[in-house]
Design brief:
α7 packs parallel to α8. A seven-stranded mixed β-sheet has the order 3-2-1-4-5-7-6, with helices on both faces. The chain is about 35% helix and about 15% strand. The protein is α/β, with parallel strands linked by helices. It has a domain of about 180 residues: 3-Layer(aba) Sandwich (Rossmann fold). The longest helix has 17 residues. The protein contains nine helices and seven strands; from the N terminus they run ααααβαβαββαβαββα. The chain is globular and about 75 Å long.
């Protein structure tokens, strides 16, 4: 008879038990990592976030887009097809940007925090006759505030370059002033205002706070600011908006589904 040889599975089990005992003997608890959690952790290391398609509270029944005007607009449909591989925004948020930007009065359009440029190009498609300024670091986050910016990871949003966004606009035949750097410092010396519409998608507390402080005196009549990641457990964004509203009581904020906010000055809309 042939001598018994341990299987690969049994050897692996013994190795795992040895590792577990090693840590337990030194005062550390070690538990098996669920495959789903491992996938999420691994994805974060590469700068991505994984979320279940069905949230904790599912949208049931599913949202019915039948006969929704914007979804039937051929220009909107074509714009979504153009930008879908260059943005993390879903169709609902793209629809909000499309409709609201078109409601504003004369002035510049800004996107602050563009990542790969899809949202900015979508705004250019929606308002073709407006000057467009696009701001992004095209780098990692500068600073995350613990307890406020925990939704995000310092390694995220590296998969982009300034040249990628410039090429996206060139290939679409659209024009924009693309500015690299941390906003609002990167806007120093530029004629940013009057700002009719701003899509503010900077994710973090300090960046949202400083951006709003910069924009408040540069807004045009009938202007709007749409903020991304509002009421989405991005606690820093929510806090920055709350602090801004406390300092500027003539401004009003309306949440937009699924995770945006519309911010505007009542006095600027009364003119």
């Amino acid at each position: 008879m042939f001598p018994h040889r341990p299987t690969v599975g049994s050897e692996m089990a013994r190795l795992k038990e040895t590792i577990k005992r090693f840590f337990l003997n030194r005062g550390w608890q070690i538990d098996q990592l669920h495959p789903a959690r491992f996938s999420v952790t691994l994805a974060r290391k590469f700068g991505y976030a994984l979320y279940p398609i069905v949230p904790a509270f599912p949208v049931d029944p599913p949202i019915n887009g039948q006969d929704v005007t914007v979804l039937g607009n051929p220009e909107f449909q074509e714009s979504v097809r153009m930008v879908r591989n260059h943005t993390l925004l879903d169709v609902a948020r793209l629809a909000n940007l499309w409709n609201l930007a078109r409601q504003t009065g004369p002035g510049n359009i800004l996107e602050v925090g563009t990542f790969r440029g899809g949202g900015a190009l979508h705004l250019a498609n929606a308002c073709r006759d407006r000057p467009l300024l696009v701001f992004d670091t095209f780098e990692a986050f500068r600073h995350l505030t613990p307890g406020l910016d925990d939704l995000f990871d310092a390694a995220w949003f590296r998969d982009t370059t300034e040249e990628h966004v410039r090429h996206l606009f060139r290939s679409a035949g659209r024009e924009a002033k693309i500015v690299k750097g941390f906003f609002p410092e990167s806007a120093a010396g530029l004629e940013v205002g009057p700002v009719a519409f701003c899509h503010l998608d900077v994710d973090l507390y300090e960046a949202t706070r400083d951006s709003l402080a910069f924009l408040v005196d540069r807004l045009a009549p009938r202007s709007l600011i749409v903020i991304d990641d509002y009421q989405r457990t991005a606690h820093g964004v929510d806090l920055a908006v709350a602090e801004f509203l406390e300092k500027h009581p003539l401004f009003t904020c309306f949440p937009l589904f699924p995770s945006q906010a519309m911010l505007f000055s009542r006095t600027l809309w009364e003119r």
